[in-house]
Specification:
The chain is an alpha/beta fold and about 375 residues long. About 30% of the residues lie in helices and about 25% in strands. The protein is built from nine helices and 19 strands. It has helices at about 25-45, 60-65, 85-100, 110-120, 205-210, 255-270, 280-285, 315-320, 350-365, and strands at about 15-20, 20, 25, 45-55, 70-75, 100-105, 125-130, 130-135, 140-145, 155-160, 165-170, 175-180, 185-190, 210-215, 245-250, 275-280, 305-310, 325-330, 345. The strands form five sheets. The chain has a seven-stranded parallel beta sheet with strand order 7-13-6-1-4-5-14, with helices on both faces. Strands 16-15-17-18-19 form a five-stranded parallel beta sheet. The chain has a three-stranded antiparallel beta sheet with strand order 8-11-12. The longest helix is centred in the N-terminal third of the chain and has 17 residues, at about 25-45. The radius of gyration is 23 Å and the shape is elongated. It binds flavin-adenine dinucleotide. Belongs to the ETF alpha-subunit/FixB family. Pfam families: ETF, ETF_alpha.
Length: about 375
């Protein structure tokens, strides 16, 4: 099949690679489909979900319900469990055949493995860990021929219609970089779970969604690895992304780590069904495991209530929690930056304040 990623005028439609594990959709798919819907409407193009796996056709309509116009199913026994070579081969085959303009992939472990492989094979650009996506509808001036000295008088330009503007934190989160991929297609982007908002499910849209079964071509020669067995980790991981109440602790608990974590648990319980999160300082120190980390390199969360105990409010921490519905911060330094994004700030020692908060909540509840 003829494929040249620089012939950008041949590419159309917005695609979401929809990851499934053991026939279960990942929640990020619905977030990306909802976001992709907005981009497709703005761009005037179709939104297509692509699912790879085995016996997975039943998953298609669910994506339709969140806004996909069409779902492409790639079903093969070799795709039952994720392997880099099988998924890269099949996904690139479909991309080369159908030429999407944009490909969005969830930044899960699998997405982070698959996306760069595909980008390299397709000879296009990839922006990883995006936190915001937008279509640039203003005409963008694109270089098509540039002299080696970058002499603008010797440079030819062409006006290009649209580009996907992919925004992500750069330089340790101190600035947000907006990146475009003007010369090659598809524009590829990975997006972290929890960053985009999942839209409403519509039964009507689910029924209207078109499904295409794509003929997969893959044989033993395409595969370098074989999954013999999948062993699930027995450890219980904290579900920060789905939590409605999160009580996070920071280095401010260092005076008595055990008691600090215990107080956070009690406060989370007092609110009702809350979970404990933490800053990177706490995770790096080994006081909580990595699945508790909130922030740029941890989880992005949007709970109804986020309580920050002894957390200074570094930009990288705020990046993961500032869109929470209600933020309560407790910090003994009244100038701590966490107070800038807090709805309620309490200045003082968390070891004195948290027991009072717990008592007050219990009192109100009784
Ligand atoms: P500190 O900054 O040390 O703050 C402790 C706070 O506790 C202080 O404000 C202090 O006043 C207060 N305090 C102390 N004792 C008490 C007490 N008894 N009662 C009340 N308050 C008290 N950080 C993250 O959290 N998540 C990330 O994902 C993340 N990613 C990063 C990525 C990069 C590339 C980089 C460079 C950094 C990242 N960081 C991240 C680290 C971040 O910059 C901060 O270092 C970190 O968030 C600080 O954690 P902290 O607020 O717990 O600790």
């Amino acid at each position: 099949m003829e494929f040249n990623s620089s012939r950008i005028e041949e590419f159309k439609d917005i695609w979401v690679f929809c990851e499934q594990r053991h026939g279960q959709m990942m929640n990020t798919n619905f977030e990306l489909i909802s976001e992709g819907r907005k981009l497709a409407d703005e761009r005037g193009s179709k939104l297509i979900g692509v699912i790879l796996g085995h016996n997975i056709a039943h998953l298609a309509k669910e994506l339709g319900g969140y806004g996909a116009d069409k779902v492409i199913i790639c079903d093969d026994e070799n795709l039952k469990e994720y392997t880099t070579d099988a998924y890269t081969k099949v996904f690139c085959d479909v991309v080369m055949d159908k030429k999407p303009e944009v490909v969005l992939i969830g930044a899960s472990n699998i997405g982070r493995d698959l996306a760069p492989r595909c980008a390299a094979r397709l000879h296009t650009g990839l922006t990883a860990d995006c936190t915001h996506l937008d279509i640039d509808m203003n005409n963008y001036v694109d270089f098509i021929e540039t002299s080696s000295t970058l002499d603008l008088s010797k440079t030819k330009f062409k006006m290009e219609d649209t580009n996907l503007k992919m925004t992500r934190p750069a330089f340790g989160g101190h600035l947000m970089a907006t990146i475009i991929c003007p010369r090659f297609r598809p524009c590829m982007s990975t997006v972290r779970p929890g960053v985009m908002t999942k839209g409403e499910f519509s039964e009507e849209k689910a029924k209207a969604c078109e499904v295409e079964i794509y003929p997969v071509s893959i044989d033993e020669n395409d595969l370098q690895t074989k999954v013999l067995e999948v062993v699930k980790e027995a450890k219980h991981m904290v579900d920060l992304i789905g939590a409605e109440i999160i009580v996070s602790v920071g280095r401010g608990i260092s005076k008595d780590i055990e008691k600090g974590v215990q107080l956070a648990k009690e406060l989370a319980d007092a609110f009702g069904g809350g979970v404990v999160g933490g800053s990177r300082a706490v995770v790096d120190s080994g006081w909580l495991s990595a699945d508790h980390q909130v922030g740029q390199t941890g989880k992005t969360v949007h709970p109804k209530v986020y309580v920050a105990l002894g957390i200074s409010g570094a930009i990288q921490h705020k990046a993961g929690m500032q869109d929470s519905e209600l933020i309560i911060a407790v910090n003994k330094d009244e100038k701590a930056p966490i107070f800038d994004c807090a709805d309620f700030g309490i200045s003082g020692d968390l070891f004195k304040i948290v027991p009072m908060m717990i008592d007050s909540i219990k009192e109100v509840k009784n």
